[in-house]
UniProtKB/TrEMBL annotation:
InterPro entries: NAD(P)-bd_dom_sf, SDR_fam. Pfam families: adh_short, adh_short_C2. Belongs to the short-chain dehydrogenases/reductases (SDR) family. CDD domains: SDR_c. This is SDR family oxidoreductase. It comes from Rhodococcus artemisiae.
């Protein structure tokens, strides 16, 4: 309930207990009852208590996106709390966190599972936001691979993908392909959401100051080199991603659906057009920590 006694709309945040997910959940909790859907329900409960201390409304519900029955139970319980107006899929694994198949299973198969389960209950005027990545814009997938990525709930999806590639899926490919698939998912499902009177979009952050981003920066030399190409010569902040999320979930974005919002400081454009490093300076890890 809000201060007037009216029921708050529900915002489900998948992965709302840490990093970017928690930041987005906190922002949405200013005018929603937020469901912190996370496999580690104990962590979600701690976050919910912290939110409550700040006058925000949140509940923790266990959810493992790799288990359809877990997703179905989470959505059922969420719908009992009120009108499901927002579903934000922020959870995901980066290349330094798992192998290619596990990354693909969590990032793309998990996202597709959530979307399919939530579609019948999302409220008219509601929105699903798939948090993708700048990496999804840097994929050159052939037609066979793309067709497979467009059907991630197929029973033999991961096996078929590796057959098409002719080898095992690497962690980097798992990440890039999964994020590419999420962007396409928002476009492919636009009509099905419109039939509910709802919207679906993807949001692609660039290099953002998060614990996951710092891990990737330490472990991945290619990411450090990529950072140096950024026209704005800095990383993005969590507040900037939350601003984009808040906008996409608001009535101000009521005519935005079936598309991707790229929030990357111009990095994708710099890579596409092979623009020079704007700083002319060597890579310095402290730039990421201090920006």
């Amino acid at each position: 309930m809000d201060t007037t006694g009216n029921a708050l709309p529900v915002a489900i945040v998948i992965g709302g207990s840490g990093g970017m997910g928690q930041a987005c959940a906190r922002r949405l909790a200013t005018d929603h009852l937020v469901v912190l859907a996370n496999r580690d329900v104990g962590k979600s409960e701690a976050v919910a208590r912290a939110f409550a201390e700040d006058g925000l409304h949140a509940v923790a519900i266990a959810c493992d996106v790799t288990r359809p029955e877990s997703v179905a139970e989470m959505v059922r319980r969420s719908a009992e709390l009120g009108s499901v107006d927002v579903v934000a899929l922020v959870a995901g694994l980066s290349p330094s966190m798992a192998d290619g198949r596990r990354i693909m299973h969590v990032n793309l198969v998990g996202a597709a599972t959530v979307v399919e389960v939530v579609l019948p209950v999302i409220a008219p005027g509601g929105v699903a936001v798939l948090v993708s990545s700048v990496a999804g814009h840097r994929v050159a997938a052939g037609s066979e691979v793309t067709a497979l990525l467009d059907d991630p709930l197929a029973e033999s999806f991961l096996d078929d993908l590796e057959v098409a590639l002719g080898r095992e899926l690497t962690a980097m490919e798992g990440y890039q392909f999964s994020k590419f698939g999420e962007i396409r998912m928002a476009r492919r499902l636009v009509t099905r959401f419109a039939e509910r009177g709802a919207r679906i979009v993807s949001l692609s952050p660039g290099i953002i100051e998060t614990p996951m981003g710092e891990l990737e920066f330490r472990e991945n030399p290619k990411k450090r080199a990529l950072f140096q190409r950024s026209p704005l010569a800095r990383v993005g902040t969590l507040d900037e991603i939350c601003d984009a999320m808040e906008f996409l979930c608001s009535d101000r974005a009521a005519f935005i659906t079936g598309t991707d919002l790229l929030v990357d400081g111009g990095l994708t454009s710099a890579v596409e057009f092979d623009l020079p490093d704007p700083s002319g300076k060597p890579i310095d890890a402290t730039l990421v920590r201090n920006s």
